[in-house]
Amino acid sequence: MFAHMSLTTALIGAVVTSLPTNDLLLSSSIATSRISPSSRRAPTYWTPPMKSNIQFILTGIPDVEDNYIRPNTGIYEIDMFWTPAETVTTMKQLGQRTICYFSAATAETWRSDYKDFDKKDLGLELPDWPGERYLDIRRDNVLKVIKKRIDVAANKGCDAIEPDNVDVYSNDNGFTPPIVPSDTISYLSKISAYARSKGMSVGIKNCIEILGDIFDDVDFAISEECVQYLNCTVYSNFTTAPRPNAIGKPVFEVEYVNYTYNGGWSDDGVALKPSSIRTSNVNFPGLTNDKLRRKLCNLDEEGVTLDKPYLKINTVIKTLALDGFAMYCDGSVERTVTKDVEGQNGPRDVDEHVGKNRRSWAREVVWRKMGGRPVDP
Ligand SMILES: *[C@@H]1O[C@H](CO)[C@@H](O)[C@H](O)[C@H]1NC(C)=O
Ligand SMILES: *[C@@H]1O[C@H](CO)[C@@H](O)[C@H](O)[C@H]1NC(C)=O
Ligand SMILES: *[C@@H]1O[C@H](CO)[C@@H](O)[C@H](O)[C@H]1NC(C)=O
């Protein structure tokens, strides 16, 4: 039932977002020459549909050597630095759009462009994350370095970018005067204009304080753990706000679980005994497996969404490692075949920090906002 609902919504979403707007706007811009055609024209870059599954691979990279990829979500978020252009190209041939992830507000010593940052760009080191320091997003040089990263993403063929950590205003970053939300808005709008000019769309992660202000400058939002730590309702404006020829923008949402499974996986990454996968989450101690999935997906026992705004949120259930494992709200479980990348986590060894190596997913910021306790796996 849920699957049918998603498909229908996906089709409606696709129709709405692809409505041709050129004719209409062309005539109105002739009639009133004040309207700037460039700000009103339909985007010339891909934007994600309102309703779609997504897969995140931020530990390792998708292994597409056999010209095969699973799940066929149509959208993958991948690591912009580590995923080679050939992988992006093959993924495109396999029908998968790519959102390329990179940090836009921290400097990591192991990145090839680290030396391009000035000393004045760098703030405090992130607690617990040696080698990673906050960036002063108000400085021209920072934008200059990040624009080069956007060039790299464009050259690799990424369809979208996810500039992470831009909620630097909510961290103890060491800059005076302090970085404030309006600095992020201004920074993100420049990043966005540049990325869009290169044919890519832009996603915003977390940053709930500025979601409304930044709506026009982003094309989708990514949320972590809004069921567990925030309220997903903060995203309902984002998915329902009116805009020219469309309504709202999509939200992709990830919830974390631990899982155990002793069954096998096919070479293609399909769980051979899906019913034997056990999931748990420390924050929902009474809930496991299907009940947990329904909770994280905001579904009731029948698989029907309980709260209307959630209908438009696209949830995927993953482990903190953001590796190949993925569970979807219809109960399907998949494992994307991935390749390890040596040095991917800089000084942070993957084995020692499984589940912690994606610090830049800013979990601690979410925890702090909620006054909650950090839960390290
Ligand atoms: C989450 O929901 C609770 C209870 O409805 C509310 O008090 C709190 O302000 C909400 N938090 C956010 C971030 O919306
Ligand atoms: C949603 O938008 C309305 C109208 O602009 C505003 O009053 C409300 O605070 C917004 N809610 C959230 C959660 O952003
Ligand atoms: C996974 O298990 C570890 C160890 O018990 C725990 O600390 C962590 O919070 C769990 N993660 C989730 C998402 O429940």
From TrEMBL:
Q: Its Enzyme Commission number?
A: 3.2.1.22
What is catalyzed by this enzyme?
Answer: Hydrolysis of terminal, non-reducing alpha-D-galactose residues in alpha-D-galactosides, including galactose oligosaccharides, galactomannans and galactolipids
The record ties this protein, via InterPro entries, to:
Aldolase_TIM, GH, GH114_TIM-barrel
What is the annotated signal peptide range for this record?
1-18
List UniProt keywords, sorted A-Z: Signal
Q: Which GO terms describe its molecular function?
A: alpha-galactosidase activity
Q: What class of enzyme is it?
A: hydrolase
Q: What is this protein called?
A: alpha-galactosidase
Q: Can you give the residue ranges of the Glycoside-hydrolase family GH114 TIM-barrel domain?
A: 70-262
- Write one Pfam family the protein is assigned to: Glyco_hydro_114
